[in-house]
Every structure is written in C-alpha cells, then in structure tokens.
Write a structure and sequence with these properties.
With 398 residues, this protein is α/β, with parallel strands linked by helices. It has 15 helices and 17 strands. The protein has helices at 33-47, 75-82, 95-104, 120-123, 127-134, 153-157, 168-182, 201-208, 220-227, 242-254, 295-306, 327-339, 352-360, 375-381, 387-394, and strands spanning 13-17, 24-25, 28-29, 51-55, 87-90, 110-113, 139-142, 164-166, 188-192, 213-216, 258-260, 264-268, 277-280, 289-293, 310-314, 346-350, 369-371. The strands form 4 sheets. It has a 6-stranded parallel beta sheet with strand order 5-6-4-1-7-8, with helices on both faces. The radius of gyration is 23 Å and the shape is elongated. Bound molecules: 3-phosphoglyceric acid (3PG) and magnesium ion. Magnesium ion binds at residues 374-375.
C-alpha cells in the first residue's frame, strides 16, 4: 500500500479524502479529533508544495443539497487546527469551478470542497463521475479510515483512476487495531455494549473465537436475558434476535469463551426517571426499564479487567447519555484508566459513544489506542477489511 512515507507527492494537485463528520451540538463541534487526525498528512502535503483539495462528507443529505449539512461551518476550525491563514472553499464540483480554483491557488494552498454527499454520484458509486473528477488531479490520498467502510465514490472510486495513497492517520488506525488483534497476550477481554444486538452480531461471533471473556452490557444485553428466560419488564429488546442470542451463547460455551451478562441492573420507569433502583434481575417489575448494569455486574466486569492482559471496549454498558445511567460506563472507564498502565494491560477502544464516555471521565491515558472510527472500527473488528483500504491496497498506478 502506498503511503506518505514511501510515495513522494510534490507539487501535485491532490484530492484528499478526510472524515470531517464531526459531532456537533447546538452549532458547536464537541470533538475535533477527526480534524486533528488528518493534520499530519495535510501538513506534509502543504510543505511539499501541493495544491490540496479536501473532500469530506457531513451527515446524510442523500445526494441533495441540504444547507444545514454544508461543510462551510467547519472552515474556521480547520484553519485554527491546521494552523493556516487561508483555506479556499469550493461550492460546486463542476469542472469549470475546479479548474478556476486550481489556477487561483498557490502551491501549498488548501481548498475545502462542499459536502461530497450533496452529489448524487457519491453514494451510488459512479465511475464516470470518478473519472471526470480524477482527470483534474494527479493523486488521491485517503486519510478517512472512519469512512473507509463505505463503498462510496470518494472512498473507492478515485482509486480506479489515480495513484491512491494512504494518509498517515489511516495507516495509524490500521496498524494499531491490527497489532492489538494479532497480539496473543492472554487473557483477552472484550466489553461490548450499545443499544442494538442487531449491529453487533457479527462482532460477537468473531470476538468469541479470539477472546477469553466478553462482557455484554447496554440494551443489547436485554435480548440475551430474555433468551435465558429472565423477566426484563418494560426494557428494550429485539425479539427477532432471541434465537441469535441463544446461538451466540452456545458458540461461546463451545469455544470456552466466558460471557458476562448482567446479574443486576439499574432500572427506571423511563429514560428521564431520575430515581433509579438497583435490583437483581429477578426483582425487575413489569413497568421497569433496564437503563444500566448494576453494581454487582460492574464489579464483576472491573475484576475481569484487572485480571486481563488485553481489553477491547466498544459500546457503553448503559444509557450513558442520560444521567445517572452513565454510572457503570464511567466506572469501567475509570477502572481502565487506573489499572491499565500499572498492570500492563493492553487497551483498545473505539466507537463514537465509547470515545465520549472515555472523554467524560478523562480516561484517555488508560488506553493504548482510541480509534476515532465508529462503523469502520466495528467492521474491522468483525474481520472485514474496509472497501476503502482494499482500494488502496489494490491500486497499482505509479
Ligand atoms: C461516521 O461518522 O461513522 C463516518 O463518517 C461515516 O458516516 P456514515 O455513518 O454517515 O456513513
Ligand atoms: Mg456512522
């Protein structure tokens, strides 16, 4: 795979795919790590006197121009974080505008292109479009690991027509995640949470084959509890996946992977209920909703963390956006923070909610690596190479 170390890009017109799909609350970017992630590649390309066009998506405008998804808002943050005076903005992706802008730009200048998902050609893979745009450039760089699981034109299409090079952050993500997965230190534990088991089936099936323990929390644990004939009151479940939950448990047993399921939980009458009750599973009332794992279960997980040599974490174990249902998730983050270095435990985390939980508790230093990818992180852990990475590997333009 070509990367910025082994492939020289100098005085070229560069089409640079970044993932600028940053979290925004009330018009404020709440986490700039996806911007900071591409800085190293951008700086290198600037110092090598390239004209760089930043291509990214924001939200899901579905191939239409939707003003609230314009990438314009991100320009001041890009300037500040990249530490550059000026960044051009290109609203229209037509050839004329592109050509004109390239002529305006000096070597080493940056231009942000409007949300690529405003183009209907983006999500349906349009090779004519890819070819037309590629003709305007000399080289394509993909530094968007967190979007590389999408088989979209800007992720896989340009690599069909241009030399395609991996950016520094993409390389760092792959190296860190792979080296964690390939490390054979034991015991190896995974903590998997989140609301839907449907999004984690393949992950669980893959992890069972490699991990000695998997702790399951979040609403997805409810479907396992139902599958084990427990009463879960009014909690969320995915009825059509009960069978799957049974199969996962059978597979775990066969492969000697210990599953930790909640033995006690924190219930409220709804997500806004601020007077939760910690109870054993057997004590759940018919109008109770499970909103977090309980103290005994948290302790079980924390003990298991301390006795592990490797810990992988994806997904909060409770409805952590709503206090006080963030308690167990925060405690897990703190346990990792306090013990990982001291006990020499290798730690890896990823996924938007997991990152928020780690940041909320200032637990970053407990992790050897935190991926800024959500879906792409998950798919990589499921054992699927991202189409974007495959496109880079298969690219043989020189
Ligand atoms: C993400 O935020 O996970 C990536 O940018 C991909 O975005 P998407 O889930 O809208 O495809
Ligand atoms: Mg996503």
């Amino acid at each position: 795979m070509k990367n910025l170390e082994n492939y020289k890009i100098e005085s070229k017109r560069v089409l640079f795919r970044a993932d600028l799909n940053v979290p925004v609350v009330d018009d404020v970017i709440t986490d700039t790590s996806r911007i900071i992630a591409v800085k190293s590649s951008i700086k290198k390309l600037i110092s090598n006197k390239n004209k760089i066009f930043l291509l990214a998506h924001f939200g899901r405008p579905n191939g239409e121009v939707v003003e609230k998804f314009s990438l314009n808002f991100i320009l001041p943050s890009l300037k500040e974080l990249f530490d550059v005076d000026k960044i051009y903005f290109l609203k229209n992706l037509d050839e004329e505008s592109f050509k004109k802008r390239t002529e305006d730009m000096q070597r080493g200048d940056l231009c942000l292109v409007e949300n690529i998902r405003f183009q209907k050609e983006e999500e349906k893979i349009d090779l004519h479009f890819a070819k037309r745009i590629s003709n305007l450039f000399d080289v394509y760089v993909n530094d968007a690991f967190s979007a590389s699981h999408r088989n979209h034109t800007s992720i896989t299409g340009f690599a069909k027509f241009l030399p395609a090079v991996a950016g520094n952050h993409l390389v760092k993500e792959i190296d860190n995640i792979n080296s964690f997965l390939e490390n054979s230190k034991k015991p190896k534990m995974a903590i998997v949470g989140g609301s839907k088991i449907s999004t984690k089936i393949q992950l669980l099936n893959n992890l069972i084959e490699q991990f000695s323990t998997i702790a399951i929390g979040g609403a997805m644990a409810n479907t396992f509890l139902i599958a084990n004939q427990k009463n879960i009151g009014n909690s969320l479940i995915e009825k059509n996946l009960i069978e799957e939950a049974i199969n996962i448990q059978l597979k775990a047993k066969k492969l000697n992977c210990k599953l930790i399921l909640p033995v006690d939980v924190v219930c409220g009458k709804n997500i806004k209920d601020t007077k939760p009750v910690n109870c054993k599973i057997e004590e759940i009332l018919s109008d109770d909703m499970i909103l977090d794992i309980g103290e005994i279960t948290t302790k079980l997980i924390n003990e298991e963390i301390i006795n592990s040599k490797m810990v992988l974490w994806n997904g909060p174990v409770g409805a952590f956006e709503y206090k006080p249902y963030d308690k167990a998730t925060n405690e897990i983050a703190k346990t990792i923070k306090l013990n990982a270095k001291k006990l020499n435990i290798d730690t890896l985390a990823g996924g938007g909610d997991t990152i928020s939980a780690i940041k909320n508790t200032n637990a970053e230093d407990g992790f050897d690596y935190i991926s800024n990818a959500g879906g792409a992180f998950l798919e990589w852990l499921e054992g699927n190479e991202s189409p974007g990475v495959t496109a880079l590997k298969e690219n043989n333009f020189t």
